[in-house]
Design a protein that fits this description.
By secondary structure, this protein is an alpha+beta fold. The chain is built from six helices and eight strands.
Length: 172
Amino acid sequence: MANSSSSILRAAEIELEEKVVAIRRVAKVTKGGRTFSFSALVVVGNKDGIVGYGTGKSREVTGAIQKGIDDAKKNLQRVHIIRNTIPHEQLGKFGAAKVLLRPASGGTGVIAGGAMRAVLEAAGIKNVLAKSQGSTNPGNVIGATLDALNKMRDPYTVAKDRGIELTKVFNG
């Protein structure tokens, strides 16, 4: 998947929507006092299976956000979506954050909090149940969410791996 993603996922060709997840003011202590700057965590996606996240730092908020958007566009990933939800239940981990994603029936909506919601909505997932455990650090939660989404297998891959027809994947 890594080799095909570079040819498929070119940020210049895709219409992406940005969402700022977190902005923090950080300070560097120098001889002359504190120097303040800003750190931004941004998620981008096309709401059709492509999502990425990035961080940026600058002395101004707008500069930090723009750097975060540029970083996120360099880290785009494809996500498997079937009938507006995910193919199967999956656990993702990143740092001390754990995330459990479960498919949901139509009309359920995105049942997720904070940083997880931003990633799932940017990816275009409309019906999902999600639970976050462990760390509440937005960066780690986003990493765990993307880890879970990257572990997803589409039905075509499952059918090929098992050596069966696609219809048998759904019917058992």
